[in-house]
Specification:
The chain is α/β, with parallel strands linked by helices. It contains six helices and twelve strands.
């Protein structure tokens, strides 16, 4: 018998034969926002929510992503950054990558932590909550890539922006390693003082294209 089995057995013994009935789970919650992915109102809502989390959003056209990523790095790291400071997801399109940046090749996490910034794509973005979802695909990279460098730049395409969480979940593979990002890493556990960068990047830059 495992520890789990033992705990459950004790609960069953304590409840005896008078277990309370299990109520029916309601399924009438809102499943969709009603607006198609990429709707201009959704993009504006995403920007508002992401910036409310103290992240920075740079908007651009589909053909300006590479230049805007470089501008995001200028803001996040300062103008003195060099290509060796940045590592990108292996499936990130070449035209989005800063010139000379290293491509992540499953190097040890300690080497990722030495990099100042990472650049990734996203699987989907949720306007209602200001959340970016990475799924471990080549464009998103492995989870450590989005957690260890101190600055994270995420590229979001307009048609990846959905309205609600349930709607976004239908577009994701639940078997993939999903990472949900709502603003820079922060905690207020100690004396209710906000401290950023405790569990991940302290700087989040979002490039919203379209």
């Amino acid at each position: 018998m495992t520890a789990r089995d033992e705990v459950l057995a004790r609960i069953r013994t304590a409840l005896g034969e008078t277990r309370p009935p299990v109520g029916e789970v309601r399924r009438d919650y809102r499943l969709a926002d009603g607006r198609p992915p990429g709707d201009p109102a959704l993009l504006d809502l995403l920007v508002d929510r992401v910036e409310d989390y103290r992240a920075t959003v740079l908007r651009c056209g589909a053909g300006e992503i590479g230049a805007t990523v470089a501008a995001a790095l200028d803001q996040g790291l300062g103008a003195g950054w060099v290509a060796g400071d940045v590592v990108v997801a292996p499936g990130l399109p070449a035209q989005w990558r800063p010139t000379g940046a290293d491509v992540d090749d499953d190097r040890p996490p300690v080497q990722l932590a030495e990099r100042a910034a990472a650049v990734t794509g996203v699987a989907v973005a949720i306007a209602e909550t200001g959340t970016l979802v990475l799924d471990g695909s080549p464009a998103c990279g492995r989870r450590a890539l989005s957690l260890l460098p101190d600055c994270l730049v995420c590229v979001v395409l307009a048609d990846q922006v959905t309205g609600s969480v349930p709607e976004a979940l239908t577009l994701l593979d639940p078997l993939r390693p999903l990472t949900l990002i709502s603003g820079p890493s922060a905690t207020s556990d100690i004396e209710l003082q906000r401290v950023e960068g405790v569990h991940g990047p302290r700087t989040l830059m979002v490039v919203l294209a379209g």
